[in-house]
């Protein structure tokens, strides 16, 4: 039985640029991609908006980073949310959203701040004598503009371009892990490996308006029973849901929350399950379409070649 999928691929040789760029209207400032959102929001809603782009509220770890945010908010008259949260009135107890690192090495708090009695969240002053300084505010009652940050990438015609990789979703389900992987390998990609909360949010955002509840990802149990990424990348991030109540040798990413599964978490299941899937390809990879190495367990998945803007070769 043949399964017809479309990975929306376009294979002719097109050059790509190694110059760093930003996507989705973000501005490249010293190799960081920043964007000011002027519609006021609570801290929580602002963070959710950033997450839809695979990013976080702005992170400031050096004086240059601070200057970059000053540049982005230059025409704003209100304080803006940044991705910092304080536990106590001491800078080492204030942590960035993106990596939970404290501001012990660098901070630009205004005098007498942090001051959590006002609020645990932190804003960036945009004008006046305190322009560029950080001040605490209450997290949920205040509505403020905000600055999001996403990783830079490289210029490419890829429709889902994130952090130096092209992401290719299937338009249907593959019968089992091996057949999903063969479909990816046919365009010199592999099933996605996941390396950060932000990458997971980026993928969740793509499927947000779909009816897909979970997708096959590129994790498979080794003989030692530890999961590994089949693309050979480091297993440096783990969001496995041990309470899911389902177990198997192949990993799946939950895209919704139900009685057993939590959105954004991974769970193990039977490798022969039929699922939608997503492939991941490093931008600039040279591809002639002959990279399939995984044997098929059923007839290979057919790929429909259509005229779109995915780019595969350097």
TrEMBL record:
InterPro entries: C-type_lectin-like (IPR001304), C-type_lectin-like/link_sf (IPR016186), C-type_lectin_CS (IPR018378), CTDL_fold (IPR016187), Snaclec (IPR050976). Residues 1-19 form the signal peptide. Pfam families: Lectin_C. CDD domains: CLECT (cd00037). SMART domains: CLECT. The keyword rRNA-binding does not apply. Keywords: Disulfide bond, Signal. Residues 29-141, 162-280 form the C-type lectin domain. Transmembrane segments: none annotated. This is C-type lectin domain-containing protein.
